[in-house]
Amino acid sequence: MTTEAVARLSLQVLFPQQPELESSDLERAFLKADSLFAGVDIVPPHIRFGSHNVLFAENNSPMKSEDTEKALGDVRCDRALKELVRGHESHVVVSYNGEETNPLQVYKLLTLVSSVLCTRGASAVVNCNGHACADSRQLLRLLGDSNWFRVIDEEMPICFVISAVTCHCFDENPYYFARTYGNEFLNVPNVGSCVLDRQWASMEQEIIDTFSNVTSYMLDSGNVVAPGDTMEIDGDDMFIRFCTEEEVARTWNRQVNEPLQPDEFFLESPSGLLHIDFSPTFIYHSARRLI
Fold first, then answer.
1. β-strand 273-277 against 190-196: which pairing, if any?
2. N or C: which end of the chain has fewer CB within 10 A?
3. pLDDT digits over 119-164, tens only?
């Protein structure tokens, strides 16, 4: 990814009021969080450490409501978190201007810096591109006392603040459509699936985990999954199948490659949109291994 494309990646840290981000105080917080920040130099709006230069732009105003609502599409958002996010009065936009060009690594660095800013009284971290939203308290509990980047790099699911799951509901339609957003910024397709409304509650976590695993597999391996492929899941000879383009077209009563209509915005994806069929017909024990 080019440096211009990387510059489009950002996270937003939300505060209930304007935070006090004094440089020397921030430096102590960064040094406590991870040794990666050894020698950190903070001259607003720059946070420089190693070969990295992270920008933080303070805004003494709420985010645009349309951007906030994108992030609140994250299916993990409960009522309390939605109230916190909608009630924020100030926000900081965290972006990248260093030497790293791998978008996943850039997002991890932005997550690290955003997490340190959370210690200054933030309520949440959101990713408008990825329609993701994380409670700052939950984020800090996950990271622990030190070595934050190791936790982010090795343990944090990609759905946490990078590529979350949004669920679309339709009038007079028994199906929900769950999908990721923002994977185009990672140079891989987004992932989606139709699920019966009565099955959503029991399948929600399985869908989140599967979408995260598929996205992580493509990023880690460099292999991009294609319609009609199968993938092993759970390491137990279980497989999921990605629908063919013809099957997807039939699902939505469309023609293959037919231009999308305005009310079909939920199918838009610049990098492509893989459809997983979670029905029992397509979860089986014998198939061509993709991994």
1. parallel
2. C
3. 999 999 999 999 999 999 999 999 998 899 999 999 999 999 999 9
Domain limits of the chain?
A: 3-154, 165-282
d(CA 64, CA 69): 9
Helix (H, G, I), strand (E, B), or coil: what is residue 89?
coil
- Is 281 a residue whose pLDDT tops 60? no
Question: How many helices and strands (H and E) does the chain possess?
Answer: 9, 13
Q: Are 49 and 42 contacting, i.e. CB atoms less than 8 angstroms apart? A: no
Per 3-state DSSP, what percentage of the chain is helix, strand, and coil (rounded to 5)?
A: 35, 25, 40
Q: Give the H/E segment covering residue 181.
A: none
Distances (CA, A) of 2 to 11, 14, 70, 97: 19, 28, 26, 11
8 A C-beta contact, residue 233 and residue 276: no
Per-residue model confidence as pLDDT tens digits over 220-270:
999 999 999 988 876 556 678 899 999 999 989 999 999 999 999 999 999
For residue 124, give Cα distances in angstroms to 71, 81, 84, 282.
Answer: 11, 8, 8, 38
Contact 1, 102 (CB under 8 A): yes
CA–CA dist 127, 163 (Å, integer): 9
Q: Strands (DSSP E) along the chain, which ranges?
A: 10-15, 41-43, 46-49, 52-59, 90-96, 124-127, 132-135, 165-169, 175-180, 190-196, 230-233, 238-242, 273-277
Q: Is the peptide bond before 45 cis (omega within 30 degrees of 0)?
A: yes
Distance CA 268, CA 274 (A): 11
| Amino acid letter, 65 | S
Which H/E stretch holds residue 137?
Answer: helix 136-143
Exposure string (b/e) for 100-127, b if CB count within 10 Å is 16 or more?
beebbebbbbbbbbbbbbbbbebbbbbb
